[in-house]
Queue: 4 jobs
Job 1
Amino acid sequence: MELNAMVMENKWLNEAFKGEVPDFHDRVGWQCPSNIALVKYWGKKGKQIPQNPSISFTLSECCTETFVAFEKADRFGFSFFFEGKENPVFGAKIEKFLMDNQTFFPFINQLSLKIESRNSFPHSSGIASSASSMSAFVMCLLEIESLLIGPSTGSVTLDLCKASYFSRLASGSAARSVFPKMALWGATPYYKSSSDEYAVSLADDIHPIFKTYHDSILIVSSETKSVSSRAGHALMEGNPYAPARYSQANENIKNLLSALKAGDLDTFINITESEALQLHALMMCSNPSFILMKPNTLNIINEIRGFRVETKIPICFTLDAGPNVHLLYPVSEAEKMEQFINDNLAAYCVDNKWIADNDGDGPKKLL
Ligand code: PMV
């Protein structure tokens, strides 16, 4: 474990609320965004430690709202509702996370929690929600803790490093969702405060062009993924290309960090597209192999590349672990892009569906 993370863990253990929970009940609520990685996290070790650092844009429209009602109880009580319906599968993940981390949050054994969660993005749009939902839940948990420790002081004083650390334990890429604009997760010599155990904000180290970037998400398929990211990460262990991948990712981190600072769009485009294709290439050469792209994923990629060559407009794509395409471009191109999407890309999408998203401001306190 890294020294600075050990120091922080000790501090969080020391400050944990270990007393008798007073006889009270309350409700907290947080909204957290999803994020889209530019340099991808694919492969992990130990306790949710990434094999290589990753960088992402924090989104704005694609987010999860979570409310937690809590009251004093003799022992831990728990129920989880997703979009109004009890959801034991997702609830079990949160329950496991709480049980695994009860030394940090011992007060949960004196609380009964009712968690209600919903996503802003359309139901079954094929967009993974674990980053936004787990980080939203962790923000609620930290707020409950701060209410027990002292009076509520609002979003600014919740420790985002702690939120990122525990979000990572709940779902790796969730570590990056608690920061506005852009985040870096994973230790790299090219960024001073970086860590494998939590993400850090890049908001102060990026050119203004990247603070208002747009991400139009083209919904090629709304089915849930055939291979979970947990299984995908595990398959990297036997992947013969893994060592080359990790060294390439480190190189991409170095070059992307300087491109983000300088506002160098050519390098940004080159690295972002290469990373998306590498992620899917790794899936194709794992054993067993799997393919998450669909024919329309490739049709859209070809359209984007053709349009870029023809118009010289600096657009590019990235992909998550699925067939949907994220079209990235500066805000100054938004009008032209809307027309391009409607004229050339929407026909490749399920029911012509796409989501207009952009660089977001991070978690929002709802109550
Ligand atoms: O956080 P996980 O375990 O769902 O993994 C996320 C993996 C990718 O979305 C493919 C890449 C990333 O860095 O977000």
Note: The first strand starts at residue 25 and ends at 39.
Job 2
Amino acid sequence: MKKDTRILSGIQPTGKLHLGNYLGALKNWVALQDEFPQVCYYCIVDLHAVTAPYEPKELKQRVFDTALDFLAAGLDPDKAAIFIQSQVTEHSELMWLLNTITPIGSLERMTQYKDKKKRHADHINAGLLNYPILMAADILLYRATMVPVGEDQVQHLELTREIARKFNYTFGDTFPEPEPRLTRGARIMSLTAPENKMSKSDMERSYITLDEEPESIKSKLKKAVTDAGTSGDLGPGGQNLLTILEVIDPEAAKNFENDAKAGQIRYADLKSYLADKLTEYFGPFRERRQELASKPDAVWELLLDGTQQARRIASATLRDAKKKMGFI
Ligand code: TYM
């Protein structure tokens, strides 16, 4: 089996991406495309996005907005293939094949499924349960060896490995077992309820989007929950702000951490420093995003190009998998 490095990851088109998406995944995607050019596949997973209630008229715009975030964050179509999942129909077909070897019990054990089942008790469709099989298809179609994601996706990746093992055992060696690649920012928490992860499905005050206006960054951080722990302990809210700062300004984060250890941290100072740093860090991002938004044709063109690159690999893998399963 070929074990050459191949990288795949995906993000749902939720509209504008937030700091968790960036620090947990997208920032790493950019680093990996530079370290491993020509073997990265980054995908906007619109088929996953329709498992929750949504407005069909808005889906295309959400995909476009996600593409703008990808490009403004530094993804480079000369180094990585950037594409839309639903345009490469092999994803759905491989998913069907993998359906037949995935135990329902494994799907029912997924934490995200259990959470969603609780939150959307009136909208539990089969897609929500089978969601991780589509994710496995996304990954295995490219015979990916490395998958840069945040911590919340690690369990899904374990299942992908289980599915790959089962397929290989049953039909012969076909798929490598992919490894997750996590970063320091793999678990960014909500600003309003720091015991939960930052998420777009939560209230607007709980997350910061990548193109957030400076005034809004300041006011959201100002109101961020930072219940102090015992002396020397930051508590989850303060620790979260420090984790965010650590990724963009490690030296300053160290100083605030020392202050905290000495019981002398001032949260107001940490918040206002972090607001300034985030504003500065995402300044060029906001400019690039605006510029790209004024050239929609070029952006769609580039996605089409990425789709063609992806399809070449995807169709060859699907053909191989079907042959191994005995199809003509
Ligand atoms: P999604 O769209 O929810 O999130 C996209 C990426 O952002 C990471 N992430 C976070 N990281 C740190 N802190 C947070 N608060 C935070 N919130 C989100 C996620 O871990 C993810 O890496 N099922 C996936 C999408 C997917 C996929 C794939 C990923 C579909 N197919 C194939 C990898 C490979 C999802 O819903 O991610």
Note: Residues 8-12, 20-21, 24-25, 45, 48, 135, 138-139, 147, 149-150, 152-153, 185-188, 197-198 surround tryptophanyl-5'AMP (CB under 6 Å).
Job 3
Amino acid sequence: MSNNLSPDKIFSPLQKVGAKDAKLVLANMYWVIFSLFIGGTAGLLQTLVRSGHLELPFGIGYYQLLTLHGVILALVLTFFFIMGFQIAILSKVCGPLSRSQRKLGWTGFWLMTAGTLMSAAMIALNEATVLYTFYAPLQAHAIHYIGLTLVIVGTWVSVAGQLMKYFSWKKEFKGHKTPLLSYMTAVNNVMWIVCTIGVAVTVLFQFIPWSLGWVDRINVSLSRTLFWYFGHALVYFWLLPAYMSWYAIIPKILGTKGFSDNLARMSFVLFLFFSIPVGIHHQLVEPGIDAFWKGLQVVLTFMVIIPSLMTAFSLFAVFETYGRNRGAKGLLDWFKKLPWKDARFVLPFLGMLFFIPGGIGGIINASGQMNQMIHNTIWVVGHFHITVGAPVILTYFGVMLFLLPHLTGRKITKQTNNMALYLGYTWTFGMGIMSLAMHFAGLRGAPRRSTYSEYGGAGIAEEWITYQVMQAVGGSFLFLAIIIAVILFFKLMTGPKADQPEVFPVAEMMDQNAPQTKWVENWRLLIIITVFLILIAYTVPITQMFTENIPGAEGYKLW
Ligand code: HAS
Ligand code: CU1
């Protein structure tokens, strides 16, 4: 009877990612490094254009480049990384994927690839210069929207295979807690399916018919609302894989235990509940949504801050316990005991440091009136570069550092470890000055997106020029870091094979054997609560978009 198995019979820490699954994971990782290179180059050029140091050749437009930068880094890089990492996790902690599960992974991969190429072609042809948020009334070629749809459908197919793996483990070992990391992938995946429905609806029923000329109008408020129903959960879809590493991998790298399995699961459940009914915090200055509903979603946004605070608390607990076990006595000297030479720890740790101001910035953004101060200024760009652009990506780098050699039968060497440290410090320095400048310029009213030349370099724009130059310097360091990352990628993928390949570290938790909190894996209940909260937050505002005459949108129905 499987029920009588002891947990260590179910999961052996030495288990490797299955060989066939490794190929699938690596295919995803090639897209990650390619996207990083293309998107990073675009980013560098942008900072140079903004500060008036460069005019783009060959008739390339600034917004065209900015669209490429946003789409390839925020959507393509992240999606491929997340699919690859989650598949690796499941194969590691639940055993190799079945043939059909792996097939779904590959089908998803190819759909995402096809969709990416379609969108990329349209962006290259300047037929899709609509930025990554594709706000109407900016309009792209239909192929761009169809490409993005294929990318999303590709993630659904891959996610279906991943969820099948999780649920088949759960069934096979009925009565046991599922491995923490597999549970985390399941939460992220379920959240993803629920939130992408919003973007799928707006693209299929609004943007595609409109771009094909079947209808001549589009309900702008509705399209933005459906986008942000998806868009805020999107940022957690990026973040949660980093949290998976912070909760369940980093402690093992330190050689210690994670804080609490139950707390980690609780924090992920809260993300599932509160990531979606908060999208209107991106629309606080928009007309057509009643103040009451904006207020309600602001309150719900403050709820979704709680699981991040829980995460910060758990991390401090792990780090402090680790340092004290090594003889730290004073208030803060545990800090010095941390393994400052191990890049697998240092990269994500630098990310965590960024997330302290990143999180504070988010709280400022969400705070009703304060949003009016920063909305549509370059402060927001600063905010997302110290959330997705530092904590998230540095943690992804930290994961790839052990994952690539693990999958290819190699080891991290002293040289690759040091290169990774350089990567981390260069990134931190570059992103540090760039995002600081963005925050300051934003507070002085510098708009997001616009270039310096659009302001003619005169009047108020003079005030921002120092900040623009700081951004260009920061951008140059970031580009240097990207070059290091690309070289590091190939070093990790080639190099001599090792007898004992790099391990995929998975931590035990301090409360590993505590009884499981049953309702946390009661998916029916979790989904009912999630949908219930969404209905409360969105039913009235969306209904009003159909029934009320919003200025400029009189008589619009779906489009
Ligand atoms: Fe945000 C805009 C609110 C988090 C990404 N956000 C954006 C946009 C992006 C983005 C991409 O309410 C721009 C979208 C666009 O194109 O228009 N954001 C929040 C809030 C949070 C938040 C409340 N954002 C993120 C994360 C992102 C991300 C995470 C990406 C991954 N954001 C907003 C709002 C806007 C917005 C408004 C709209 C602005 C506008 O008007 O346009 C919260 O989730 C933040 C909670 C985080 C914390 C921090 C916890 C800290 C931890 C680290 C601990 C460190 C340790 C190490 C332990 C409370 C876990 C320290 C050790 C030592 C020794 C010191
Ligand atoms: Cu948000």
Note: Residues 1-5, 555-559 have pLDDT under 50 and may be disordered.
Job 4
Amino acid sequence: MGVVNVTPDSFSDGGQFIDPDAALDQALKLVADGADILDIGGESTRPGATPVSEAEEMARVVPLIAALRARSAVTISIDTMKPAVARAAVAAGAGIWNDVTALRHAPEAPDVAAELGCEVVLMHMLGDPGTMQAAPTYGDVVGEVEAFLLARVEVALAAGVSRDRLWLDPGIGFGKTLAHNLALLAALPRFVALGFPVLLGASRKRFIAALDCRGEAADARLGGSLAAHLAGAAAGVAAVRVHDVFETAQALVVQEAIQAAPEPRT
Ligand code: PMM
């Protein structure tokens, strides 16, 4: 899954693709680079980001989705917490609603997800983007994230979303310390074992710089991103949400080829 942020302030690529033509070019480049899914977002969820109005968010993403739909058969995901934006995006050609609030942002969100019939990514976040990194605290991070996701599955099912439309995402970096992120990455097999496709988003995230101080700039975190996403693929996640599609696709091809190689005879 390649990331296309049409925002002036996303943490790693903010402002680069706010121009509609630049965003479309970037989207098509990511498809050529090997993306099977494009995740299009019009509101930054970085810690402390300022919220965007519904009208502004729609104006950023809907024309891009429509233009992309006319040019490519790639699966399109809309990264939004707003049901109205999800509805407009699906009408324009999106097939996945990626919601970092797991359908909690508006009371009607679960009903809208059921009505749209699209796939839905339920992601874990502690608090909201304005406060989530203040002092995240858990007793048992893996158990609590798992319990949260299963509770959101129940809410979605109760609203009428089909079980086979649901994805889960532990939400790397959303209200988590370095230790929390590492515990969740190490526990990916447990999330995969829940029986839903798992989405992993570690691309260019801050925890990489916390492990390697040379990664202070977001675009100096490719190596760490690859390591996390390869670990995710080995654990069986269904998709990885990345900015660097070419390099990630290449790394995954090599990992798969090694796994498929015959055992040596001697
Ligand atoms: N991360 C970001 C935004 N949306 N959605 C899901 N499902 N999982 C994530 O990890 C995730 C997300 C933040 O990254 P960005 O600002 O580069 O888009």
Note: The chain has one domain: 2-260.
